[in-house]
Amino acid sequence: MRDVAVAMGCGIALVTYHFGTKDVLFSTVIKRRAAYMAQERIQALDAARARAAARGKPVPVEDIVSGYVWPFVERSAAGGKGWKNYSLFIARHANSPEFAQVIDQHYDPVARQYLDELERTFPTMPQKDLYYAFSLMVGGMVSIVAEPGRVENLSAGLIKASDVEAAFKRMLPFFSAGFKALVPPSP
Description:
The protein is an all-alpha fold. The protein has helices at about 1-10, 10-20, 20-55, 60-80, 80-95, 100-120, 125-145, 150-155, 165-180.
């Protein structure tokens, strides 16, 4: 809290007056951008549902993956320094037991809508596999936006970690194929 107060150029009393504890401050930071992310994801899912309904078919997995992953990738790539810092923060804390409840509170309602749609798209997929696939997708998404530089090192500079849009072009078919691969073969 002291570091936040110093960065804001005010006294710690002002920060604690408005936010109380670091947990409240953390929740406030997450809530603000998670609300934007939820809106973008729901709009994408609603549009995908409308297109699928017009065809009388389930929502294609590519639309589900894109609708969930792209808003996060896009904000990280094009949303400016505030969004980049936020995406890095989420990448570092998404699986942290200390912050899990806050992340769950602000992200799970929309994630559950996407999981429900995935169940409709893949009615024969075991639920356990669906949850694993979704978690792997989210893990890959946050890992890519963290831009750790490992991909640059492995590719000897051929790939730039900062080019998250190029990474998304590969994430979409990769994640989609992962979901499809877990569907049991028809008897």
